Amino acid sequence: MFKKVLVANRGEIALRVIRACRELGVQTVAVYSEADRESLHVRFADDDVCIGPAPARDSYLRIPRIIAAAEITGADAIHPGYGFLAENAEFAETCAASNITFIGPTPEQIRLMGNKAEARKTMQACGVPTVPGTPGPIDDPDAALEFAKSIGFPVIIKASAGGGGKGMRVARDAEEFLRSFGLARSEALSAFGDGDVYVEKYLERPRHIEFQILGDTHGTVIHLGERDCSIQRRHQKLIEEAPSPAMTPALRAAMGDAAVRGAKSINYVGAGTIEMLLDSDGSYYFMEMNTRIQVEHPVTEQLTGVDLVKEQIRVAAGEPLSVSETPELRGHVIECRINAEDPARGFQPSPGRIDVFHPPGGPGVRLDTHAYAGYRVPPYYDSMIAKLIVQGKNRDEALRRMVLALESFIIEGVTTTAPFLAKVLEHPEFREGNFDTKFLERELTTILQQPA
Ligand code: ADP
């Protein structure tokens, strides 16, 4: 096992990783920007190193500074969390070159799955269905238009290197397609340094269903069930739950088999997620693979009893997975991402000092957060301040628990999305489990007008 793990991240995930290390008897190093000096992850770690000014490009994204921090403190492994450098193959390579273990998959696996067009080809080669689309990147607008016409509108133009809900454009007819195609290419180039785009069929009312994957260096690859992440705003997830209300044991077996087949075909090591779209007619398609721990991983942890972060650390140290097959899925779990944002003002960020912070509790309630009374939410990073996860014996109990937990969660000083999320949970269609990725967009005005 490692002696000391450096956590190359901030916020709740840095705390989450530090907790896992402590349980394993491993020491920890926190790195932080000047804006995060007062952060809890700094206080909880055994060692801490300031790596630069507030902007992420000058601190959390600076590879040489993070490697130097590991060397100075004697860390023998680095956990990247999610975001920042978590899916940066060059970072994983630099760790290896510096004799530091990167807690995650290999640089080759990161690179292969990081390019969506390449990832599609890999999945097709092992018989995993993908959304009908161009065989790879396409640069000629006329050829691309011909292709779009052949599969039929609407289509979606996606940046091969895209991520985080960015680099996607929907086109509903030829005119819009030609306009969007050039824009998509230049946006991809400026946002990701890679102008490659490909075209695929745009599904009108799909669900976003993803499978949690774990693999080890001894050849075991398993899935730990699905998460339904269809409640999204601008392609960003707000609420996740498992099991999916749309799932049946037969569909789970088929989709889970496909996910495991895909991950096995690249000998996947560590925690990863195969994201799929489930269409209203029951067909499902691979969309992308994330080669890291996900924000919503606690949903699966509660449902299965498996500590995914500890598994990541053990696997990176060469140990076998502690589970060899899909565990029993226990009850129903829902997660709400609570952001310091104002829904009434177009979800504008609401940074500032948290004056009062009174978290909910009780049976089946888990809160992953780095916030506390007196904490200043900095304006430089994403606005998520807490993840509230509840478990019930069935969906109905989990829903009731979540609404009560949101209502009794008192945060003063910054505006949060908690009251908005409670209203989403009370929407009749959500209650019935009858929703898709466009649900929130369609119902947004109605939900915003509901009294809290
Ligand atoms: P990112 O890597 O930026 O997260 P994804 O490829 O995972 O992008 O897609 C994010 C979301 O965009 C999906 O959850 C879904 O809501 C929507 N989306 C992506 N591809 C399609 C498609 N072909 N049809 C309909 N919706 C799509």
- Strand order in the largest sheet: 13-12-9-10-11-14-21-19
So, CATH architecture of the largest domain? Answer: 2-Layer Sandwich
Task: Report the top-level CATH class of the largest domain.
Answer: Alpha Beta
Over all CA atoms, what is the radius of gyration?
21 Å
By secondary-structure content and strand pairing, the structural class works out as alpha+beta
State the fourth-level CATH superfamily of the largest domain.
ATP-grasp fold, B domain
In round numbers, the mean pLDDT is: 97
| Proportion of residues in β-strands | 25-35%
- Cofactors, ions, other ligands: adenosine-5'-diphosphate
Instruction: Return the domain count.
Output: 3
Architecture overview:
- It is a single chain.
- This protein has an eight-stranded antiparallel β-sheet with strand order 13-12-9-10-11-14-21-19, sandwiched between helices. A five-stranded parallel β-sheet has the order 3-2-1-4-5. A three-stranded antiparallel β-sheet has the order 7-6-8.
- Helix 12 (395-407) runs antiparallel to helix 13 (418-426).
- The protein is built from 15 helices and 22 strands.
- Helices cover 35% and strands 27% of the residues.
- The mean pLDDT is 97.
- It has three domains: 4-103, Rossmann fold (3-Layer(aba) Sandwich), CATH 3.40.50.20; 132-201, ATP-grasp fold, A domain (Dna Ligase, domain 1, 2-Layer Sandwich); 207-449, ATP-grasp fold, B domain (D-amino Acid Aminotransferase, Chain A, domain 1, 2-Layer Sandwich).
- It is α+β, with helices and mostly antiparallel strands.
- It is globular, with a radius of gyration of 21 Å.
- Bound molecules: adenosine-5'-diphosphate.
- Adenosine-5'-diphosphate binds at residues 131, 156, 162-166, 200-203, 206, 208, 232, 235, 275, 277, 287-288, 437.
